[in-house]
Specification:
This protein has a single domain, classed as TIM Barrel, CATH 3.20.20.70. Helix content is about 35%, strand content about 25%. The chain has helices at about 40-50, 60-65, 70-80, 95-105, 115-120, 120-130, 160-170, 190-200, 215-225, 235, 240-250, and strands at about 10-20, 20-25, 30-40, 55-60, 85-90, 110-115, 135-145, 145-150, 160, 175-180, 205-210, 230. An 8-stranded parallel beta barrel has the order 1-4-5-6-7-10-11-12, surrounded by 8 helices. The longest helix is centred in the first third of the chain and has 11 residues, at about 40-50.
């Protein structure tokens, strides 16, 4: 498998959220507020590759809701299309050690844990020990200061978000993907105060998600100290051009060169 060397400063991760075989975006994690953009997730991944992406963030939305991988064929198609050249991270329904191992063995570079890590930090630590810290990330999806799982269900109980990061950092997690649920899919800008709170803890790399709409948003996140940003709806609706973003925000330098 051909994999790039780890990039240094700020990574852009275009998002592909898959539901029922289609590429969709939700608003504030609400499955009733869905917009579909494509019925071919692999083709979308190839378009991101053509634009110059080095990472792709893939979410199995059905898996996130049911607690087990559901869009296996769509994820496999994405991995087959670009997984040997790009780093593809997969999230959604990864709630057991076995499922995480299968996802990584299938070609994902990184598995993103959510519900399981929040409920069982020790399991997240075991997975880091087994696969390496660069292969495991944890999603801290924040609503009203609480880190929530279970597909962002409004009935899901949460724990204080900063506490969640501290507990997971203590067991070896080094990469945290933080989403401001209230901003997600609304194109209203990121919650800079939220990301600053996590960055000030200095317990791991923080990748921002939710509300990112403009180049200024990305520059602000980079200046704040985020390690990267996940971009979704702004790309699909033409607010941001991925090739321009990658040229302006994530220039290729010695730390970002591909190792072919």
């Amino acid at each position: 498998m051909l994999i790039m060397t780890i990039a240094s400063a700020f990574e852009i991760l275009p998002a592909i959220d898959v539901q029922a075989g289609r590429v969709v975006r939700l608003r504030q994690g609400d499955f009733a507020r869905e917009t579909a953009y494509s019925d071919d997730p692999a083709r979308v991944a190839q378009a991101f590759e053509t634009a110059g992406a080095r990472w792709i963030h893939v979410v199995d939305l059905d898996g996130a809701r049911t607690g087990r991988p559901a869009q296996v064929e769509a994820v496999a198609a994405i991995l087959a299309a670009v997984g040997k050249r790009l780093r593809v991270e997969v999230a959604g329904g990864l709630r057991t050690a076995g499922v995480v191992s299968e996802t990584l063995a299938a070609g994902a570079f990184r598995a993103v844990l959510g519900t399981t890590a929040l409920g069982d930090p020790d399991l997240a630590g075991d997975l880091v020990s087994t696969h390496g810290a660069d292969r495991i990330a944890v999603a801290i999806d924040v609503r009203a200061g609480q880190a929530v799982g279970r597909g962002w269900s409004t009935s899901a109980s949460g724990i204080e978000a900063v506490t969640a990061m501290e507990q997971l950092a203590d067991v070896g997690v080094t990469t945290f993907e933080v989403t401001a649920i209230e901003r997600d899919g609304l194109l209203e800008g990121p919650d800079l105060d939220l990301y600053d709170r996590f960055i000030q803890l200095d317990r791991g790399a923080v990748i921002a998600s939710g509300g990112i709409t403009t180049m200024e948003d990305l520059r602000n996140l980079r200046t704040l100290g985020c390690a990267g940003a996940i971009i979704g709806r702004a790309l699909y609706e033409g607010r941001l051009d991925l090739a321009a973003v990658l040229t302006d925000i994530e220039p290729v330098g010695p730390g970002n060169q591909e190792n072919r």
